[in-house]
Design brief:
Layout (H helix, E strand, L loop, with lengths): L4 H12 L20 H8 L3 H9 L7 H11 L3 H12 L15 H9 L4 E4 L5 E4 L1 H6 L9 H7 L1 H6 L3 H15 L7 H13 L1 H9 L8 E7 L3 E11 L7 E6 L5 H18 L6
Antiparallel strand pairs: 1-2, 1-5, 3-4, 4-5
Helix pairs in contact: 2-3, 2-4, 4-5, 10-12, 11-12
Length: 279
């Protein structure tokens, strides 16, 4: 991840703004994607030299009003604006020693009794604990795997997602939000580097610097045993657990997807108890 996080974010967002959307009249061919630096400065009411210093990392402590003015020029929503503000609050920190994440015992018990696919993931989208229904939904949802890596690099996981390309952008944006406080963490840098080398879609989406809240969303899965599932995915924060989230999939009661999810549970039950039917 860039040591000049503020400059990298400003440059990425500037290049994504359509000049017409910023109220500028476009004449002729523009060689620069998005807005020019001097255009951002003019629209934000600051000097071009000062904006250049921000992008180059020569001034990393702009005032809140300056950043909010730039956010308005870029058309950032509240979440993206807050992320922009957070980049100036970061201070160099000593590398943290990787620690083994522990899922609270009560949450593990909840996973066992919850009659819905559910698992716990870390800030880095690593699967820390799961229940049998989640693994029945996707065999890749198991402790030790990483949801971001699986979605981008595992063809079998891709086959489960009929809206794969649409889901990618949201997942990368949520990941950036999740690890924002871990800038410089070698594990984050290693994962981003691995995916950037192995996946062109990830590399392209990561360069956009999009952010979005870690929240629930509708999703569709095409399961090989029970067919198309239209589900909601909820992400619930687990108390004081260092950013761990409880992820739960559920369907509208009485719907075809709810019945298919119940069927999936019955198919998974013999496997979970070790009483596989004779063939």
């Amino acid at each position: 991840m860039s040591t000049n996080a503020l400059g990298a974010y400003l440059r990425a967002r500037r290049e994504l703004v359509d000049p017409a959307d910023a109220g500028l009249r476009v004449v002729g061919v523009r060689r620069t994607p998005g807005l020019r630096r001097e255009e951002v400065a003019t629209l934000a009411g600051i000097s071009a030299d000062y904006y250049l210093r921000l992008e180059q990392g020569r001034d990393r402590n702009p005032s809140v009003p300056v950043l909010e003015a730039i956010a308005r020029v870029f058309g950032l929503d509240a979440e993206a604006t807050q992320y922009l503000l957070s980049l100036t609050a970061a201070r160099p920190r000593a590398p943290r020693r990787p620690r083994r994440e522990t899922v609270p015992a009560g949450v593990r018990q909840l996973l066992d009794v919850l009659d819905l696919p559910a698992f716990v993931e870390s800030r880095m989208f690593e699967v820390l604990a799961t229940n049998r229904l989640a693994t029945a939904l996707s065999p890749r949802i198991r402790p030790g795997t990483n949801r971001l890596r699986d979605v981008f690099l595992d063809p079998d996981e891709r086959d489960l997602l009929p809206d794969w390309e649409q889901a990618l952008g949201g997942m990368v944006a949520a990941f950036r939000t999740s690890v924002a406080a871990d800038a410089g963490d070698p594990r984050v840098e290693q994962l981003v580097g691995e995916l950037s080398l192995a996946s062109e879609p990830f590399r392209r989406l990561w360069a956009r610097h999009d952010v979005k809240p870690l929240a629930g969303a509708p999703m569709r899965l095409r399961h090989p045993d029970v067919g198309l599932l239209e589900l909601r995915r909820e992400k619930l924060s687990i108390g004081d657990s260092g950013g761990q989230l409880l992820v739960v999939y559920h369907a509208e009661p009485g719907s075809d997807s709810a019945r298919a999810l119940a069927l999936l549970g019955s198919l998974a039950a013999p496997i979970a108890t070790g009483n596989r039917p004779a063939t």
